[in-house]
Amino acid sequence: MGTSPDDMTPLERLGASRRSFLALAGAGAGASVLAACAGGGGGGDAAEGGGSVTGEGEVTDENPLGVDVAAPVVAVIFDGGYGTEYAEETGKKYMEIYPDADVQVEGTVNIQQDLQPQFAGGTPPDVFDNSGAQKLAVDGLVPQLADLSDLLAAPMLDAEGTVEENLLPGVTSPGMFDDKFLGMNYVYTVFALWYSAAEFEEKGWTVPETWEDLMALGEEVKGEGRYLFSYGGQNASNYYQEMALSMAAKLGGAEVLTSIDNLEEGAFEQDAVVQAYDAMGAAVEAGYFEPGGEGIKHTDAQTSWVSGKSVFYPSGSWIENEQADVTPEGYDMTGAPVPSLPEGALPHEAFHGTAAEQYFVPSGGENPTGGAEFLRIMLSKEQAEKFAELTKAPSVVKDTVPEDGFGSTALASVNTMITAAGENTFTYNFSDWYGLGADSITSWTSFLKGDIDAAGLREQEQAMIDRVREDDSITKFKAGS
Amino acid sequence: MTVSGVDVGVHEAAAPTPVVVRRRRRVPTPQRMLFFLIFLGLPLVVYLMFVVSPFLQSFYYSLTDWTGLSPSMEFIGIENYLRIFDDAVFWKSLRNNLVLLITLPTITIILAFALAVMVTIGGSTHGGVRGVRGAGFYRVVSFFPYAIPAVITGILFNFIYHPGGGLLNGFLNLLRAPLNGVRGLFGADPLNDIGTAWLGDQRFALAAVGFAIIWTFVGFYMVLFVAGIKSIPQEVLEAARIDGAGRFRSAVQIAAPMVRDNISTALVYMGIFALDAFTFVSVMTPNGGTDNSTKVVSLHLYQTAFRDGRFGEASAMGVIMAVVTMLVAVLVIGLGRSRKDKR
Q: Which residue has the higher pLDDT, A236 or A475?
């Protein structure tokens, strides 16, 4: 069908996974939907999940989770954009450490079809990567998952400190549910403004750090008959919402986004939001957006961008992989923090970062401790480095990407951004929590097309979150905890 | 049915003659029973199970707050319907559906009928009534668009409508050069490069999607009408011609009334399709176009169900659309019938 997951933009897909996970807070611990048919009856015999993963084996410094050294481990990995090789490497390492254990790493593109019968039959794998278009709905899954807080508290395999201390800031929040840590997101996503480093070098441009510089560059680019930005108004104009909100957060601090996440009245009237949206409005008025964007999809817009019709594109760090087929040789795709407005609360280096690719350990598996140990090995510096090398994407483990980014300019720039930002990262969730992507796209396309101005856009977005707030039938989430 | 022998009890008392009574009382043989079981019972069970029961089920869901994810749901009465009543996007979607409902069948059927006439009775007026030269070829070729999956048609039209490198704008820009030449002679300013985003501009988007749908279906309905016109006795058409009827008159006054049933069927099918149109709209304008200019109810329903997790509300939309669809079918069939009765 038309609106299949394959049609979704990566941003939507990221949102969908976040949303289905968080939708649970309202649903409460339901019965096993995996076994129940759609909407059929409402049993309440939920087996309470979330038990600790620490096993029966002897707990030592080398074996902090107390894993049974001879027990086999079955890991099921989504075979998507990141492949399965990184997990196979982890499996090999596991067998190196525990020579008596037999580790099976299975790749699949259909997590749901492969695993649903296993869950229903009570024989789930010990650890799996719930990703892709055919992932398991996390609802119903939660009661069957093990609590991974012991994993966070466990010491690193090959570095100082605990696992948690070696993670990038903010990456555990997507896996939190009812104060339990159930999902370990492994891949780090950086939202940035992407451009061709080769072009900037050739033309002697510097990447604009302030909005003023960006507008100046816009004028120059316009002189060449090109544009600053391309957009796919049919399904992805909300990439610019992400950019504007990032600018607002850098100007007014992360609380600006918390206020929007909490659906506060007047959230879109906050001074920082007004300024950021006005700035975007000025760029639209100046004609810095490639015309006709309202009629095309993100794939067309991004092709237009890499083929040189425009200079910048705001997106997540998946963009290099996504565009690999159409990006010209020597483009040197590079990311930079979005331009800052004057006198920002956060430094220019601050950016919007979040984590994806969620790993779960089923509590009803043969060897959940082994599953957690598998993750601990995967979270080691050595394996995280291997992941970055294999996939050209950063993992959630700190300091595991070398400066040259294994030859990928995008990965190197992401790494620079992560190091430079330190703790100054932020994220927002309202769009994912309440499924507001579609409404945002509708408003933003009208805005980028020039039908409504920045004030009109803010009005529409405020009305959008007001509707959610005033609708008692929608479960609300609390941000900023 | 009365002679079938199954409904023994019902007509027993009313049976007027002993002969009939004896026939009706006959106990069905096992073979007969088996026959009914397989050819009537089985389809009925399947129909009840897979068509009727989901209908009833979704009607029930429309009265609940089911999220599609939760195993349980609460009964909330007509609240979903009230929400829909207040939902501006739903009304806009329904309006778009109604625009399609009026335009799509009209244009598709007129075009299809005209083409069918051309390949059947539009040929040379000398000799027997026949189609234009190469009719067989056209008949086969015109069916091709229908054989292409709708998703692919949608993607192809996306390319055609592309604002920058699209075929349509490219073609219009080709025409621009000579036009500007003419304008230049009169001292008018030359026209700018045409870069219309056909699917993004509210004025054209729905028409652009509609054109793709018409392109797909014209060939199919042409084949349907060709079959209908072929079944008209040749003598009737020849008699009309001898009486002096031209091609156009033969088509409108002889052929059209004689394939009225086909046209009526086509109207119902096209009408139902216009009320759906999900595939084309969602492939060509995944979010329903700028300012919801191409959003149809089916797409809004899909987003409500799968993006917002409001299956109850989406079911209510489905129920409303089912009612609208049935009304349309009854209206079209009813109109066709009453006109027939008058004759």
A: A236
In a domain, A472, yes or no: no
**Residues paired with residue A340 on neighbouring β-strands, in sequence order:** A210
Binding-face residues of B in 147-176 toward A, CB within 8 A: 151, 154, 158, 161-164
Under 8 Å between Cβ of B209 and B294:
yes
Cα–Cα distance measured from residue A171 to residue A175, given in angstroms and rounded to the nearest whole number:
8
Condensed to tens digits (0 to 9), the pLDDT of residues A299-352 reads 899 999 999 999 999 999 888 888 888 999 999 999 999 999 999 999 999 999
Judge whether residue A207 has pLDDT over 90. yes
Residues of B in contact with A435 (CB under 8 A): 307-309
Number of folded domains that form chain A: 1
In a domain, A256, yes or no: no
With left for phi above 0 and alpha for psi between -120 and 50, is residue B333 left, alpha or beta? Answer: alpha
pTM: 0.81
Q: Under a CB-based contact definition with an 8 Å cutoff, are residues B251 and B110 in contact? A: no
Instruction: Please give the Cα distance from A398 to A403 (Å, whole number).
Output: 13
Half-sphere exposure for B230 (CA within 13 Å, toward CB): 12
Mean pLDDT computed over B223-236: 92
Q: Outline which parts of chain B fall under CATH 1.10.3720.10.
A: 83-162+197-342
Domain B83-162+197-342 indexed as CATH 1.10.3720.10: yes
A201 assigned to some structural domain: no
Q: Is A88 exposed, middle or buried (0-12, 13-18, 19+ CB in 10 A)?
A: middle
Partners of A162 in the β-ladder? A155
Segment 9-68 of chain B within 8 Å of chain A by CB:
61, 65-68
Of A42, A140, A442, the CB nearest to B292: A442
The DSSP bridge partners found for residue A180 are A177
Is the model's pLDDT at B6 over the cut of 50? no
Host domain of residue A180: 10-188+358-399
**Which segments of chain B does DSSP mark as H helices, in order?**
8-11, 18-25, 30-36, 42-47, 53-61, 79-85, 88-120, 135-141, 144-147, 150-160, 167-185, 205-230, 234-242, 247-249, 256-258, 260-276, 278-284, 297-302, 311-342
Q: Does B181 touch chain A (CB under 8 A)?
A: no
What is the DSSP-derived secondary structure letter of residue A83?
Answer: -
Residue with tokens 């480095």: A385
pLDDT tens, position by position, B301-313: 988 887 777 889 9
pLDDT-derived band at B339 (thresholds 50, 70, 90) equals low
- Most B CBs within 10 Å, among A14, A144, A297, to test the B interface: A297
Query: CB-based contact (8 Å) between B195 and chain A?
Result: yes
Write the pLDDT tens digit of every residue in A67-91.
988 999 999 998 877 889 999 999 9
Q: Do B309 and A23 touch (CB under 8 A)?
A: yes
B69 to A40: CB separation less than 8 angstroms, yes or no: no
